[in-house]
Please model this.
Amino acid sequence: MQAKTISHPIITSMQKRHFILLDVLPFLGSLAAVAILWRTGLHAGDWVAFVVMWYVNVIGIEIGYHRYFTHGAFEAHRAFRALLAIFGSMGGQGPVVTWASTHRHHHNYSDTPQNTHSPYHRGGGLRGFIHAQLTWKWSYPYPNPSMYTPHLVHDEMIITLSRYYYVWVILGLALPGLIGVTIGGTWRSVGTGVLFGGVLRLFLVQQATFFINSLCHMIGFRTFDSKDQSRNIGWLSPLTLGGSLHNSHHAFPSTANNGLMWWQFDPGYWFLWVLARFGVVSNLRTMSKQAVARRRRRSAPPAAAAEGPAE
Model:
């Protein structure tokens, strides 16, 4: 029998190093970036770099790490698979194998004592929110990739790309500077692009997507029956490409479409639908109306007017 989780001093040391480098430093860097940018101001190139890199990150995390590598919700061309792995790595949330293994473990034990990032580990409330949002990553039992993601462990391309994880993170910080100087035309634009589209963007994208671990298990609507406390938060959906439709996802983990009701906003699925028209992805897995109706909660709001504004 394989162990479901692995505890080892080397793994713990790596987790703490990652926490300092890619959770603590981005926070401190963001404080410095705000102070500097307050004095220098922002230009068009900075905003373009910020928006472009935001959605490059979220495509990598939500579409790549989550729907594709973890849940196999669609099939993808080999080159696009590589891009998804690189874009996700730029988000500073860990290599593909680690992220996917942790998320599959989360689905197995969601909101139980075994779930490492449930807000109910600390009794909910503010302490639970902080734990689920951030502090759980300091040290936790590492979900065994050989058990949870053997398809990735034996994927030579993914393992090779993962060896360069920190290179992709640095590239994600540098690209906004290139965008900034291309549009702004000055060396100063490099610096402001890196600060706004790189450092500050990295921190804010992390917090927005981490809300799915924390807020999406604490507030929002439960449209579907599930064994956990997952919830849908509509206002987060544009920022997370539909990832915040978390209750819908927990009801149907392997679907490419989280927007299962007509009023639910899932731009991530629209993005996949367009890519499918060009043959970049294929075999998008979706749920039948009958399956969706069977899982819907009897107490769920009957119309968009009931769910949308409250979320």
Q: What stands out?
A: The radius of gyration is 19 Å. The mean pLDDT is 91.
